[in-house]
Amino acid sequence: MGIVTATVPVESSGLVELRYRYGPQLLPAGGDPTSMWRYRALLPLDDQPIRYSLPVGGTPLLALPGLRRASKLPNLWIKDETRSPTCSNKDRATALSCELALREEKIAITAASTGNVAVSLAIGAAAAGLEAMIFVAAGVGEGKLRLMLQAGARVFKVEEGYEAAFRLSRKAAAKFGWYDRNTGVNPATLEAKKTVALEIWEQLGRAVPDVVVVPAGDGTTLSALAKGFRELVLCRATDHLPRLIGVQAEGCQPLKRTWEGKRCGPIRGTCADGIYVASPSNAATAVRDVKESHGAFVAVSDEAILAAMDELASRGGVLAEPAAAASYAGLLVARDAGLIDPSEIVVAEITGSALKTPHLLPCQAGSVHTIRATLAEIERVL
Ligand SMILES: *Cc1c(COP(=O)(O)O)cnc(C)c1O
Questions:
Q1: Which of 258, 351, 357 has the most ligand 1 atoms within 8 A of CB, as the residue to mutate?
Q2: Where do the domains of the chain lie?
Q3: Which fold has domain 61-87+189-360?
Q4: pLDDT, tens digit (0-9, with 9 covering 90-100), for 30-45
Q5: Cβ-contact 57, 203 below 8 angstroms
């Protein structure tokens, strides 16, 4: 179970890719559908019992009639990664990293983060009895910072920004013997997040969709999906890959520009902090994965992201933070550009919840009426 057969360096990035002895025997036959550990044969774990106790994985794949109507995509599915301990897809990578850190008898675990990794790691480390050493850019959101502090994390605000925080966290891990959970260098983060692809396949009745749309910052969420779907092919569960559409913000689109063969272009910024990554650590691999799947990158404006937050919540009941809503905004752009046919089975991954970013909610869909307590007043409004 879970025996890695090879670690292969991925061209021009610090990442190594883990390979297994692939075959149908690695796919789950039974087991708990609400847990990521049901895929442990495809994770770098031996048969020791799992010690990490927060429940992770088994997030719902939602069929939402209002959203299907609004998007004019009758076969749209929402993979809702907000239903997880700290409401983002980062909890999968935190779970596997903390489990490995416990097995290596580490005392502390570290990562750099734009926000969600930090919250996820702070909570996950607390639950695992590990110390969290978190490196963030000085501009980190106040709400997310409070959550890290509440969980007892030691937070280093790095004045030079996220990329510098990332390099420093790695150096500190090497120097002080902390477990390094940094995305894009620790292959465990990719391995954990690939379980989203495996779940989608199982939840669609052991079938892969035509298209998966996913927001892209560093591009590891996307590459993890790609690896999951590739491994389903290698395990002979399917004969094709879904097309992957990576969504970037118009104000920060280095992956899209690289995919187009252009230079990186100006970085103007975006309200979507989870995808505000100017030099993605996983760029080469993410671009390769999109090409291999015959997919695409699209870019969306901050206005479109805010409109997507409104539509997801009011037509689908899904509370998405800006980076997560980007996948729905990008889906509409891809549909209008003819990259998605309305008859296709499309999955949009919603990577993080608006509950952590209530101050960013546009709140355009509903209405407030201050009234006297009579039925006549209600009738007047209606
Ligand atoms: C981290 C994150 C992303 C982007 O993931 P990458 O792996 O950096 O591409 C998207 N949305 C949310 C909410 C995130 O936290």
A1: 351
A2: 61-87+189-360
A3: Rossmann fold (3.40.50)
A4: 778 889 999 999 999 9
A5: no
